[in-house]
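Ticket #4471: structure export looks truncated?
Reporter: QA, pipeline team
Priority: medium

Steps to reproduce: submit the single chain below to the structure queue and open the exported record.
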Amino acid sequence: MKRAFIFDLDGVIVSTDRYHYAAWKSIADDENIYFDEVINNRLRGVGRMESLEIILERASRVYGQEEKCALAELKNERYRSSLEGLTQDDRLTGVTQTLKALRGKGYLLAIGSSSKNARFILDKIGYGDYFDAVVDGNDIVNGKPDPEVFVKAAQKLGLSACDCYVVEDAKTGIDAAKSGGFTAVGLHDASGYERADISLSAFSELFALD
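Actual output as written to the record:
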């Protein structure tokens, strides 16, 4: 029997996709680079600098490292500013009740997110001190599909990969979980992904896992 759930944050616990898209779109527009929802979908589960590299694939010139860092920081400033209005109402459907139920069954709960804003977002939605462990983009060197974020979350819980479910909405996150030896649970866009060990249609279905 598993002893813990490690959750991706964005798209699983809360959705800030529209804020990410708006911030990246503003950067792309400033630089006269084409950017749309299709390209944006390639950024799901990917770190900030990796996301920028995907956007710059359509750039008409080569950007230096200092320029890239400046653009990434500007994107983050715009994104964080847009998150100021987040509240507990932005938790996704079924999350609050299901987390309480899982904790009641004795599971440990952790966050494993590539976002460097994960703790900020958790504070805004009232989950600042809720999880037993939080590992985000500030704690890792390698973003997904590298399993580092999940491995470190398990370590913080004092558990091994075989003790933990990883819950992800992005295929990149499922790949990361699988490469780390975790049991990968796919939700939303990752539901039905062939590499997922378990596919669910709703967050509340997690309660039925043993």
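Status: closed, not a bug. The export was complete when the record was re-opened. Leaving a note from the reviewer for reference: Strands lie at 4-7, 108-112, 133-135, 164-168, 183-186, 198-199.
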